[in-house]
Design goal:
With about 450 residues, the chain is α+β, with helices and mostly antiparallel strands. The protein is built from ten helices and 27 strands. The strands form five sheets. Strands 10, 17, 19, 22, 23, 24, 25, 26 and 27 form a nine-stranded mixed sheet that branches. Strands 3, 4, 5, 6, 7, 8, 9 and 18 form an eight-stranded mixed sheet that branches. A six-stranded antiparallel beta barrel has the order 11-12-13-16-15-14. Helix 7 packs antiparallel against helix 8, helix 8 runs parallel beside helix 10 and helix 9 runs antiparallel to helix 10.
Length: about 450
């Protein structure tokens, strides 16, 4: 049965559909035939929540039996998913999509093999049938979507409770210089980063790190980082770039720095109450009267609201500069995700709902945990050592393929050296071709 609550959002009252129970999250594998990208998908016995809006079959998918059927109202489901994609329970009247109050029936045939759930789905809208095929990977992740939306809840460091203030040394502001293009546009933009291990492993968004052009090119860099609580402390910290993803909008660094505090990766649940802290550029504070106002550390609370592609939309409000902030449980002890974008379409002067990438998805594809426990480095050290000793092209090709599957930059500089220093001409050529095509994305 569908539950209804009444909310007050942006000064208006809306009826909202409640997600009655936590949803299991699946990763929909890319379909090159239908040119459908990767995305997240949430489902329970009563409810389905895709990471895209408008796919009739996906909006009615069910996988709880070998064959199952769902029927839904097109306009109601479309607008519900549209609202949740952008961090709300209900679309404001000005944005409601009038797509017709038509019933849609979706019939699914489900099979399971090799860790995948394969679904052959057929949707029926007034006799018009569309067939789709999906491959889903279980992330073993549950999301407890909120039943209410209280809008922006933001405070700066001075207003935060004592237990949250203790998190301030886990996050830092990243300053990126913008080169002068001859049109007077030189300057600086900022983002946020945070530590996932006290030995200096840290995350930020790729769209923040991409401004560090020399770092992205050389995979080693010196980053201007600021730590702010009651004072502002800025320094240049050497760092190694270990991996990045455009699709998941993150980069992993190893800083030459011992972090006083870090966040622990959590991969099994995304709870209803969330917290983020970062350096949103719309909140300023004077730390030193001689320097003028600087960006303040801002805390924001909220809840997961829906799915957006490979991200989770939330009611945590953020603004420019908060990109790369950690998403945590309400106690600040469990790292749930990394903020990546804001849903500005439904924003207001206090920011916009934040969209974050689940750390469970990032860890599954890039094995962040293996960097922290050293297994990733051990594997790659062995591959590089064996590649140096490889005498046959076939062995070298296999080793290069294994390195490629790690989706890393770790020890890439040594492969570059081997591409012109390896004794075998064939191996040198193979390494050269690999380096031209190498990407850490998937």
């Amino acid at each position: 049965m569908k539950n209804i609550v009444t909310l007050s959002l942006l000064g208006a009252s809306f009826a909202a559909t409640v997600l009655a129970a936590p949803l299991d999250v699946y990763f929909i594998e890319k379909n090159t035939t239908e040119k459908r990208p990767h995305q997240l998908f949430g489902i329970s016995a009563e409810r389905v929540l895709p990471g895209t809006v408008g796919d009739l079959a996906l909006m009615g998918l069910c996988i709880d039996a070998s064959e199952c059927t769902r029927t839904y109202n097109l306009e109601e489901r479309y607008n519900d998913l549209l609202a949740r994609k952008y961090g709300w329970h209900e679309v404001p009247d000005a944005f409601v999509a009038r797509v017709g109050n038509w019933p849609v029936t979706v019939m699914n045939q489900v099979s399971r093999r090799a860790g995948l759930i394969e679904v052959r789905s057929e949707s029926d809208l007034q006799g018009s049938r569309v067939k789709r095929n999906y491959a889903l990977t279980n992330l073993f992740l549950k999301i407890d979507f909120a039943d209410t939306n209280f809008g922006p809840q933001r405070v700066d460091y001075d207003q935060a409770p004592a237990q949250l203030k203790e998190l301030s040394n886990s996050v830092f502001e990243i300053s990126v210089e913008v080169a002068n293009n001859g049109l007077g546009d030189a300057g600086e933009f900022t983002g946020t980063g945070f530590f996932i291990d006290e030995r200096g492993y840290a995350l930020t968004n790729l769209h923040v790190a991409s401004g560090l052009t020399a770092c992205m090119r050389n995979k080693f860099c010196r980053i201007k980082a600021s730590f702010k609580d009651t004072v502002s402390r800025t320094g240049l910290i050497d760092a190694e770039l270990l991996t990045c993803s455009a699709q998941l909008d993150f980069c992993l660094f190893k800083f030459d720095y011992t972090a006083p505090k870090s966040f622990a990766i959590h991969k099994t649940t995304i709870p209803q109450n969330l917290l983020t802290l970062g350096f949103a550029g719309d909140k300023m504070k004077v730390f030193d009267p001689n320097r003028g106002p600087e960006t303040a550390l801002t805390f924001s609370t909220g809840s997961p609201m829906g799915l957006a592609g490979m991200g989770v939309s939330s009611s945590m409000f953020i603004a420019s500069g908060a990109s790369g902030s950690p998403v945590l449980d309400e106690t600040g002890t469990k790292l749930i995700g990394i903020l990546s974008n804001s849903a500005t379409i439904f924003g207001n002067p206090d920011g916009a709902p934040g969209i974050f990438r689940p750390i469970a998805l990032i860890d599954r594809i890039y094995h962040l945990s293996d960097y922290l426990n050293g297994r990733k480095q051990t594997r790659i050290n062995g591959l590089v050592r064996r590649l140096k000793e490889a005498e046959s092209l076939s062995v070298a090709q296999w080793l290069i393929k294994q390195y490629e599957s790690e989706r890393t930059y770790y020890r890439l500089d040594e492969l570059e050296t081997l591409s012109f220093a390896h004794p075998s001409k064939e191996v040198r050529r193979e390494l050269f071709l690999f380096l031209k095509r190498h990407t850490t994305d998937f």
